[in-house]
Structures are given as structure tokens and as C-alpha cells.
Model the fold of this input.
Amino acid sequence: MKKINLYFRFYKNNFAFPLALSLFTLFSLGFMPLSVMTLAATTLLIWFYQKFINDKKNQTLYFYYNLRLTALKLYTFLFFINMIVLISINIGIKWMF
Done:
């Protein structure tokens, strides 16, 4: 239970930009594969920015590293939870119309 809370703590801090951009793509174009690609690309951009530009010494994730959570696990969790939200919203849109 402790690790799930840590995953959701990381998710709470980093979920907004990829999800918002992919939802914008979904609502404006109505094309699910493009919004999934947008979600994947923005998640990778956040990882790239945080790893190479913002924190060159990788000190922001030490809290998670000390509790045996790697950056790959954290960003994979971020991607899959956003994917679940995106798919459920897409199903809701298709079901409504």
C-alpha cells in the first residue's frame, strides 16, 4: 500500500500536461491513435526534460530511488494511468453519441 501511495504522489505531480494535451487532441480531432501518440510523446518529453535539462544530477527522484522505485516504473505508471483515463473518456464520448 505504501508503494501505491508513492506512485500516486508522483502521478499527482506530473499528470496534467500529458493528459491535457492528449485530451485536447482527442476532443479536437476525434482520432484516438493520434491522442495516444500525443500522450506517449509528451510523457517522453517530460522524462527527457526532467532527466537531462532540469536535473542534471538526478536528485529530484532520490526519494523514490531510496524506496526502490525507478524512474522507468514511475513514468510507466504515469503513462498507463493517463492511458486508462483517456480510453475511458473516449468510450464515454462514443457511448454518448
Remarks:
- Residues 2-96 form one domain.
- The mean pLDDT is 88.
- Helices lie at 2-14, 16-29, 32-54, 62-66, 71-96.
- Residues 71-96 form the longest helix (26 residues).
